Every structure is written in C-alpha cells, then in structure tokens.
Amino acid sequence: MQSRINEIVKKTYQYFYFDGLPEITSGSLFIIAGFWLILMGLVENPISFAVLSAVGLPVLIFGGVFIQNRVLRGLKERITYPRTGYVDYRREQSDRKRWVLLGIIFLVSFLGIFIPDTWYELPLGIGVILGAIYIYLGYRLGIRRFYFAGFVAVMVGLLGATMLPNEVIGAGLVFLLTGLMLVISGGWGLYQYVRSHPAVNEVA
Known about the structure:
8 helices, globular
C-alpha cells in the first residue's frame, strides 16, 4: 500500500516537470546569473564589484525567482493545463525547497567570493551541488534528461576550476552552461510533450 502511494506521489511531481517548462525557466535564470557572475569577474574596480555582488546578486536571485514563478505559471496555464489538466501542488513545500536551493547556491557563491579560503575551487563546488541536485531529481522523478544536466554541471565545474584562473568567472560559466543545457533539455521535453498531447482545438 505504501509503495503504491509513493508511486502516485512520484507521478504527481513528475507531471510538474514532464512538459520541460520548469527546466526552461530555471535554465534561463541560471543563464542570467551566469552572465552576471562573469560581469562581476571582469570588473576590476572594488567598489563596482561590491555593488554588483552585495546588492545586485541578491536582487537578481530573489527577483529572478519571483519572475520565474510568474512566467512558469503563465506558461503552464497557456500550454500544459489545457492539454493534460491542472494539478494543485502543495505550494508551501515546493516554494520552501526552491528557496532552500537558491539559499545554498547563494551561500556557496558568497563564501567563495568574499572568503576564498572557505572553498578554494568555487566553480567545482557549485558544479557538484547543481549536479547532485539534478541527478537526485532524475532518480527521484524518473526523468532521464536530468541525469545529463547533472553530469554537464559537474563537468563544467571541473573545467572551470582547472582551466580558469578567475573563480568568479568560472562560477558564472557553470551557471551559464548548466542553464543552457537545461533550456535545451527542457525545450526537447516541451517538444515531445506538445507533440504527444495536442490541444483540444488542435484535435478538433
């Protein structure tokens, strides 16, 4: 009985990611964050760097999450719900997990930028964290494309740590390329979803 319940819960949350839209929106946010970190790494003026990191980075993260949620909700209302219906998730729990995830990423970035001795290889650290998260999601939800996204995150983190002398630029590259991978995989998932589940007016 418990295994049956777990399977139902798994399929319910799998449905949330099935259309690829969460990957596209979160990947887009990662790409923007990646460009922002690369810009920070290129800035030589310490005052400008402090403004970009201490003010700009939190605004980017929390504002980006807010916009991402709005965009994702709008896309699902336009694309997903007319095709396969609406599922009411426990929003408090999902929002809590999302904020915890972003808090971990922000904390690692902050420590690596301002206290480099806490994590010498910042790109590798971020790559391992992102990779572990997406590999876990792939295992937990049974979505194979998450495994590839996690592998890309770890590999890019390794390359950024070994080949780039500037760790902030390396961290930005991890977010940028991982986000690009998520957008591509999410786009493929969306293509398959739309192809397999035409809208009612398309069927008619």
